[in-house]
Amino acid sequence: MNEKREIRVVLADDDALVRDGLALVLQQSGGFYVSACVKNGAEALAAVSKARPDVVLLDVRMPDMDGLECCRRLHAQYPELAVLMLSTFQDDAYLAQALEAGAVGYLLKHQSTEAVTSAIRNAATGNVTFEPRLAASLRVQSTTPNDAFLQGLPPRERDVLELIVAGSSNKEIADTIHLSVGTVRNYVSSLLQFADVRDRTQLVIWYYRNTQNHEDG
Question: CB neighbours of 91 closer than 8 A, spacing ≥ 6?
Answer without folding.
Answer: none
